[in-house]
Amino acid sequence: MTSPPETIGIEPISASGLQLGPAERAAIERVLTSGMLAQGPEVAAFEAEFAEHVVGRPCVAVSSGTSALLLGLLAVGIGPGDEVVVPSFSFAATANAVVLAGARPVFVDIEPRHFTLDPDAVRAAITRRTSAIIPVHLYGHPAAMAALSEIADAHGLAIVEDAAQAHLARLSGRPVGTFGEVAAFSFYPTKNMTTGEGGMVVCADEATARRVRLLRNQGMEKRYANEVVGYNARMTDLQAAIGRVQLRRLPGWTEVRRRNAAALTGALRGVAAAAGLGLPSVAPGAEPVWHQYTVRAPHRDEVVARLAEFGVPAGVYYPTPIHRLPAYDLDLDLPHTAAAARQVLSLPVHPNLSGAQLDRVVDAVERAVTP
Q1: Nearest to 187 by CA among 141, 258, 244
Q2: Would the pLDDT of 43 be above 50?
Q3: What class, spelled out in words, does domain 22-246 have in CATH?
Q4: Where in the chain is the domain with CATH 3.40.640.10?
Q5: Which residues of 62-75 are buried (b: 16+ CB within 10 A; e: fewer)?
């Protein structure tokens, strides 16, 4: 596709704003010099430093966000015969982890304002086999944890938070990742902070954390003393060293994301009302971290194509609900999920955006949605 004249020579806008610099390179060099590459002191330090952001809960670093979900489920006893209630509007890993644990994902609808689990839908899906709920803090916005916790308590269910996109998000002053028995964070390169690959399991107690540590390391804490059948899901010291640098910068980055999101909302409010564009909504007491700034557009694919013509990347997360993917292929009536999959698109909101680039995003959206 040939770029329109007004975009030629203009610095392209990044979709994710990955930031890696001298501090990360120095951290990698420190690990290479030490010769300790796998699950050493850097991993332990990273776990301790991450715990400071989740009210001191025990943290276990692992190889990916998916590993964090899987090991978290196994650590709280989820397995064959169990059902786990999950949203279908999420990345496939949310449900895949349930299947890999030997359980069955039960897909339910989202509430349409914040794209997170609908508590009423969860309540209606509970059977005698239901053992856990996985709320996803999608796009960095907390799920409705008060209502979901009440449901879990009433039915004796575990809560396994999928916080892959929600580092430092809070609800009623409480950090996400501290509402359930376990929570899973991801450090994939597109997340608000990265270790290249990697994840973190945040645990409600030390006993659960010990089970996760066994599961990530072939079932052993002491070498050759395998207590259970486990996995190789360790994080390397190279990854942890990068993560420690990124974690120190994360609070500042988060504030910039929030300012950028506020700027987008303020600038787009007029055109949104005129063009039927749905801007993001923040729930009372929620402090989202804007992993994505996600809007609704009645003619989403046309808008995405127009934005691309103006040099603005727009992501679509997620165009196919999990239950409709070939791996699951279920015929379910989830109307809010279906509508979101047709309509959502995400605009750049990351902390690397300059003021001029934010203005370009706003201008491109106005032009893309105006007939």
Answers
A1: 244
A2: yes
A3: alpha beta
A4: 22-246
A5: bbbbbbbbbbbbbb
Strand order through the sheet with 182-186? 59-62, 199-203, 182-186, 158-162, 130-133, 83-87, 104-108
Q: Could you tell me whether strands 199-203 and 182-186 are parallel, antiparallel, or unpaired per DSSP bridges?
A: antiparallel
The size of the chain, in residues, is: 371
Residue 132 DSSP label: E
CB-side neighbour CA atoms (13 Å) of 38: 5
Quick one: tokens of 73?
């489920």
Percent of all residues in the chain with a pLDDT value above 90, rounded to a whole number: 93
Q: Give residue for tokens 């109307």.
A: 335
**CATH 3.90.1150.10: which residues of the chain?**
250-369
Which two structure tokens, joined as six digits, stand for 138?
């999608």
What would the mean pLDDT of 228-240 be, rounded to a whole number?
97
Contact present, 204 and 182 (Cβ < 8 Å): yes
3-state helix, strand, coil in the chain (%, to 5): 40, 15, 45
**Position with higher pLDDT, 106 vs 1:** 106
Classified as helix, coil or strand, 362 is: helix
Does 3.90.1150.10 match the CATH number of domain 250-369? yes
CA torsion sign for 160, 158, 318, 288 is negative
Taking the C-alpha atoms of residue 285 and residue 263, their distance in angstroms, rounded to an integer, is 20
- On whether the CB atoms of residues 279 and 269 are closer than 8 A, the answer is yes
pLDDT at 331 over 60: yes
Tell me the torsion sign for CA atoms 241, 96, 177, 231.
Answer: negative
- Under 8 Å between Cβ of 351 and 256: yes
Looking at residue 170, what is its pLDDT?
Answer: 98
Tokens (6 digits) for 176: 């996400």
Cα–Cα distance, 162 to 183 (Å, whole number): 6
Other CB atoms within 10 A of residue 84 CB: 25
